[in-house]
Every structure is written in structure tokens, then in C-alpha cells.
Amino acid sequence: MSADTTSRPLPALTAGGHVLADVRGAVGFLTLNRPGALNALSLPMVRDLTTVLLHWASDPAVQAVVLQGQGREGKPPALCAGGDIRFFHQAALAGDPRLEDFFTEDYALNHLVHRYPKPYIAVMDGITMGGGMGISQGASLRIVTEHSRLAMPETHIGLFPDVGGGWFLSRCPGHVGEYLAMTGETLGAAEAIEAGLADVHVRAADLPALLARLVSDDLSAAESVRACADAVASPPGSSSLAARRDAIDLHFSQPTLAGITASLAGEASEFARHTLAALHKRSPLMLAVTLAQIRRARTMTLADDLRMERDLVRHCFHLRPGTASETVEGIRALVIDKDHQPRWNPAHCADVTEAMVAAFFVSPWPPHVHPLRALV
């Protein structure tokens, strides 16, 4: 008896059209459709993405999945600029339980992407940051274009690189992971490929041809997906990251935050000055937490890293609740009031103690009731 190759109807979606799902040929297309917000993820969007991915995982008519972002006419593209941080701010101050739901369900979605049983292709055209990286880095094929701008910029707002950032950044070459995590530096296509955060460069003008090949080809073998991409791929150009690698490894291999800043301060190069200035704008406490996160994650499984990050993000909003939270203050300064004058506590790296950092890594849940206990 032959397998049923008829695609089953999609379950009802609840994000108000912010996630579009359709099947063309044997390929399921997921399109983030919130272009006015650079396709930033809301809780309903996370739920829709999860629902569709689980549905297609068991649908024999779907051989592969493509994730892409809806563009804006006449403006640079974006796959996804991250999570809805205005919602985070409002929910934290209001005690809205949906904040807890968002992080639990978003991290579970990140795990699903990494463990997806079928080829999953992330088209990282344009801005792909934060939560956008979370739903892309687990892809079996990560495509970048000349428009791509990849980053984990969470330390800008007093957070840490979550959505599995500890896991994938800690696996960058050398100490590039610490550098990207702490500074939030933005990478172009060539830099992303060199850092191990992208696989292939395709010109934006050639994306329609790539998608057409995916729809028309037999994708039952994983190597078929890469062959489709290679057929239209082009060189990404030179990487500016290569020229910085020695300096990055020298400074960001230091054992402590104080050691990193002192190492940068002792060098007169433009790179050192620029990097030190960037770190001085961040929350000293959350820089130290981020450094510890990346280094702990190097020896963790993905599931354990996501559980650790779930602990961390809970503490970001509850260890110091309300306006005392570094994250709430960071969002206020950069997004709500836009005064760009966050009042970090403590204000200086020298005042961050080991006990302050260690408190973030104490799980608020026993293992048997951890919200991500089911991940393996």
C-alpha cells in the first residue's frame, strides 16, 4: 500500500495572520507576517509556529519546511528581529503570567527546531536577531544574503543571549562566542558563515529561484536540500571577523569580566577601544552572567542549556522584581523612554560580586517540575 501523500488541512492558527502557513509541492512554507514590527515574535506567533511544525512533522506529504519573513515595500528585509520586548516590559510590571508562558513555549520551540525530523531551511534574509536566531540556528540549512544582519543583542537591554544562545554561541570558533554574546556585535553574511552561524550565501535576487528548486525537487534526502542551495549560491565576500580573531581570542579568553575589560583597556587599537566602549554601555551584572552562561553551556546538551536559560530569564524578571530588574530598566531606557541612559545596578564591573552572578544559576524549580523538564 502506498503512503498517503495528501497534505492534511492545517489546524486553526491564532496569531491573527502574523504566521502564514502553506504547502507548495512537498515543501511547507512558514512566513512570519508582522513586517511593521520586523516580524518580532509574540506568544500567539510562537504557538502557531509550534502547532504547524508539529503538524507537518507527521504529515507524509511534507518533505521539508522553509522559514521566511514577510518584507516591507521599499525597506530592508527582516526574518525576525527577536521577541516582543515591549510586551516583556509591560508584562513584567503588570505581573502578567503570559510572560512566563512566552519564555517556556519559545524555548520549547527552539528545541523543536533543533530536533526537527525533516529538513528545515531558515532564510535569514535581512535582520535576524535574538528570537529570530532562536528559530533559525537549529535549521538543517541556514541561508544568508547580502542583506543579512545577524546578532544576539540582548545585553543591550540588560538581558543575556537566550533562545539557545548559550548553546550555539559557545560552539563558535575560539572565543568568538563570548565576544558576540557580550557585545551584541552584528554580523554580515561572510562573518556569520565564518562564525559557524550560517551555512550558505545566496543573493537575495536568487532566492525565488532557490525556493522554486526546493518545490520542484525530491527532498526526501537531506543532501538534496543543500544541493538546491549550492546550485544558486555565490561567494559571500571577505569577512571582517578574520582580521579580529586574534584580538577576540586574546581578550575574551580572560577568565573574568574584569580581566576582559582590563585586557581591552591595555591595548591601543581601534578594535579594543570600540569594544571596551560597547561593554561600558551594558549592564555589568548581566555581562558577568552572560560570560558565565556561555562558558557553562560549552559542556551542556542543548536541552540542559535551554533549562539553564529558562532559569536565568526567570531570575532576570523576578530576582529583582519590577523596576529593580536590569532587564526592565534596559528595555525602559532603550525602547520605552528612549533616553539611552540605563541606570545599571551595580554601575561598574568592579562592583559585581561572584554571589550576585551565582544567584542567577540557582534554579527556582526542582527538576521534576521544571517547565522544560520534558526536553531531551
From TrEMBL:
<dbReference type="InterPro" id="IPR029045">
    <property type="entry name" value="ClpP/crotonase-like_dom_sf"/>
</dbReference>
<protein>
    <submittedName>
        <fullName>Enoyl-CoA hydratase</fullName>
        <ecNumber>4.2.1.17</ecNumber>
    </submittedName>
</protein>
<keyword id="KW-0456">Lyase</keyword>
<dbReference type="InterPro" id="IPR045004">
    <property type="entry name" value="ECH_dom"/>
</dbReference>
<keyword id="KW-0378">Hydrolase</keyword>
<dbReference type="GO" id="GO:0003860">
    <property type="term" value="F:3-hydroxyisobutyryl-CoA hydrolase activity"/>
</dbReference>
<dbReference type="GO" id="GO:0004300">
    <property type="term" value="F:enoyl-CoA hydratase activity"/>
</dbReference>
<dbReference type="Pfam" id="PF16113">
    <property type="entry name" value="ECH_2"/>
</dbReference>
<dbReference type="GO" id="GO:0006574">
    <property type="term" value="P:L-valine catabolic process"/>
</dbReference>
<dbReference type="InterPro" id="IPR032259">
    <property type="entry name" value="HIBYL-CoA-H"/>
</dbReference>
<feature type="domain" description="Enoyl-CoA hydratase/isomerase">
    <location>
        <begin position="27"/>
        <end position="361"/>
    </location>
</feature>
